[in-house]
What we know:
Blueprint: E1 2-6, H1 10-19, E2 24-28, H2 31-39, E3 46-50, H3 58-67, E4 75-80, H4 85-94, E5 98-101, H5 106-144, E6 156-159, E7 162-164, H6 166-173, H7 184-191
Parallel strand pairs: 1-2, 1-3, 3-4, 4-5
Antiparallel strand pairs: 6-7
Helix pairs in contact: 1-5, 2-3, 3-4
Amino acid sequence: MTILVADDDPLVRRAVEAALAGRDVRLVADGDAAREALEAADGPLVAVLDWVMPGLTGPEVCRRVRAAPRPIVPYLILLTSRNRPEDLVEGFSAGADDYVFKPFDAAELRARVKVGERIVALHQALADRVGALETALAQVKQLQGLLPICAYCKRIRSGPDYWQQVESYIAEHTDATFTHGICPECFEQVVRQEGG
Length: 196
């Protein structure tokens, strides 16, 4: 998972990169580049953002990213020396998920990034589950509609020139399985008459 680090101070960028050694880290020096990276279709899903930097500030990046529709919401960590309660409120109100004070402890930053990665993974799993449910619902709706069925052989038309047995059609579109038996009427009308 790529982690975006946005800070205008090259020493801080390098210190964060060193703290996150072994991870895929992308470095940018201003808020506009951070917003652009986070809003890209394949953008990073975890970001460590400085509060004060050229272009957009960290909280402004949070607001813009939260306003943009995206299937998986990035986890945003503000990294700043602002530690007053009103700063915390402002940062969280802007859409930040977490807050780390400068000067930061490398172990604490790694732990908070790991929390972000876990939350993003949960969001991804939830999005995958929703997608699977939507697919299943579409298949159920397909079965609730009218089915073109032959009045004689009882096969279902599943393509312009393709007809298939009811059992195979339903098995392809649901989790249903079939067991076969003979109903009393068919037993009397077909099996007995054929000498069975």
